[in-house]
Amino acid sequence: MTTYISILRGINVSGHRMIKMDALRQLFAGLGFTNIQTYIQSGNVVFQDKKTKLQDLEKKIAKRIFEQFGFEVPVLVKELEDLKQVVKNNPFLSDNSKDISHLHVTFLSAQPDKENFKKIKEGQYQADEFELFDKSVYLYCPNSYSNSKLTNSFFENKLKVVATTRNWKTTNELINIAEKISTNKL
């Protein structure tokens, strides 16, 4: 079995597109997935399934959410090893002056066009910094992500891809949960 991490965009935010985690786990079980674990209320689900194309899993999950809850939710799925690589590649980790509590990762549905990224890289974003690696944008937001212009909508509009962001603590906790599931230690 392969361990996957699904990251849903925009559920349970300000009372909109509400999905209880019990209902989300049941939805995933109904799709035939096993060893399902959720983490916090923002749509993080770790699960196992046979080796499947990530895009097929994303479509399958998004379709079932729409059928069951009546609204569309962008879904991104990563394999455990891919998420570990995302963490390993964070360029801000090598800078000891950066407080890791201000780190975030914006996961993208596809690698963006380099010209689109180059255009936004030239902009001014107060003290916020960001770097692109493959399908991840690494963010350093020292004045809080909630005060940043570097939102999911910003990246979606500028890069023409689906984006969803997780803070550094959540990203690492998803790896911890996925590793426990992979080694049957839950």
Q: Looking at the chains present, what oligomeric state does this protein adopt?
A: single chain
Task: Write down the overall geometry.
Answer: globular
Helix content: 25-40%
CA distance, first residue to last residue? 15 Å
Query: Low-confidence runs (pLDDT<50, min 5 residues)?
Result: none
Strand order of the largest sheet: 2-3-1-4
CATH topology of the largest domain, anyone? Alpha-Beta Plaits
Mean pLDDT: 92
Radius of gyration: 16 Å
Q: Quick one: how many beta strands?
A: 8
At CATH's second level, what is the architecture of the largest domain?
A: 2-Layer Sandwich
CATH C-level category of the largest domain: Alpha Beta
Description:
- With 186 residues, the protein is α+β, with helices and mostly antiparallel strands.
- The protein has two domains: 2-79, SP0830-like domains (Alpha-Beta Plaits), CATH 3.30.70.1280; 84-171, 2-Layer Sandwich (Alpha-Beta Plaits).
- Helix content is 35%, strand content 24%.
- The chain has six helices and eight strands.
- The protein has helices spanning 21-30, 54-69, 80-88, 114-121, 152-159, 168-182, and strands at 2-8, 34-39, 44-49, 75-79, 103-108, 129-133, 136-140, 163-167.
- The strands form two sheets. Strands 2-3-1-4 form a four-stranded antiparallel beta sheet, with helices on both faces. Strands 6-7-5-8 form a four-stranded antiparallel beta sheet.
- Strand 2 and strand 3 (44-49) form a beta hairpin.
- Helix 3 packs antiparallel against helix 6.
